[in-house]
What does this fold into?
Amino acid sequence: MAAIITDQIRILNAKNFVAGIANANNSYYSFVGLPNPLEYSSTWNENPPAPKDNFDQENDYWDSMIAMKRINSTDVRQVVPKRVWSSGSSYDMYRHDYSRSNTAPVSGSTNLYSSLFYVINSDFRVYICLQNGSSPETPNGRPSLDEPTFVDLEPRSAGTSGDGYIWKYLYTIKPADIIKFDSTEFMPVPTDWENDNDASLIRENAVDGSIKIVTVKNRGIGLGTANVTYNGVPIEGDGSGAECVVTIDGDSRIESVTVSSQGSGYTFGTVNFEAAGIPAGTTSPEFDVIITPQGGHGADIYRELGAYNVLMFSRIESDNENPDFITGNQFARIGIVENPQSAGGSVLTSDKASAVSALKLTGIGYSEAIFTVDSEVTQLVGTGKTSIGRVINYDQNTGVLKLWQNRNNHGFDVSGNRNTPSFGFQLNEFTGSPESGGNVSITPTIGLQLTIDQAFNDNKTTINNRTYYLGMNFSNGVASPEVKQHSGNIIYVDNRPSITRSSNQKEDIKVILQF
It folds into this structure.
């Protein structure tokens, strides 16, 4: 049995995904993680390994997660491959019938959506190419010389070079969308095209089953009367009302065919010479009548341009009031999580969330203490019971130590191989209320021994009349992760060369999901 899943289901899936993010019952978050990539691979920064997709690896993604940023409906768009207009480049023309047996002449593509039939100009205006100079002498079209810049409703040429190109204006990318959704390889299409007021003129100008272009494949021989133009030549098919102007050259051959009335309702058509009274020649001409997409050009740009990709945007920046994204350490992994839960078990809804634990430390010299990133920190939490974690970040101003705990300190290496742990296989959490035989002592890499501030129960602290917001709620000097680990679905993971964050930098994360 021969069957295909069409591109339309890909477009539908992209639309539904975008709609799912806008659904108030859902929460999507980007995350950063993996502060210790070189333990996984000594060449990680030169050649990050491909992520693995299994449940065990998903646990590792959670274990090495640092913080999350919520993705709102305004942070997601359907996008299409970016094709920047360039003088001297050739482009495919829009056709309704590209296939394996009728490939696009410039790109060689077997379908419309992978062909080069649209461009973005230097002013971020998007156009589709309806005619690329194709003729019997230049069946593959010609180079484009005039940059389209107009915003007319009807298609036309872009200049006076005579390159033969006819362009149709679709939309202009808004400045805010350029910042969020424009990338080197993709460009956004407007959100909610069906109801967008800015697109209303384009939509209303679209006519279902209309005809804009007729190309000449063979000029014929001995046609009509030399140097005569025939008006009102009907285009016949399953629609009605389409007509064209046919010009005969001095050799009694077809010089040009220009659509004068676009008609409506066509899914096929042909130019009827006989009905227009044009005398037949010794060799009949051949034409291609190009059928517009469903609804007409501009009616549904998602379908017309093939918007089956989605770009999700997150901006990570330092936030004095909610410092969940640490500085002074690196991350080498980003990803997307669907519907993670808060520590209490409900769907997470906060703008940001920490995925790691934190300790509020006190003691002489806490402001000079040094905790080396990725080094081990331990606490004796009871007789024969030790908690062990890895340093992510230490703030000498506030005495807040952020750390993470995972299997790597409890009997398994980063590859999942079993080893002998220093403090047993059981993972014990840090605590401000240790059991009998335990204590609250924490020893830095350099400096005097410190202790967990058992009297601290807040999310901010005041030092020398300045208030520092900690971004986490502490109880007895300990803050648990704000997100429940191993909740929700990790739907995207990207291993990348490590980035070390500083307090004065921002990171824009742009994730492309291809459906």
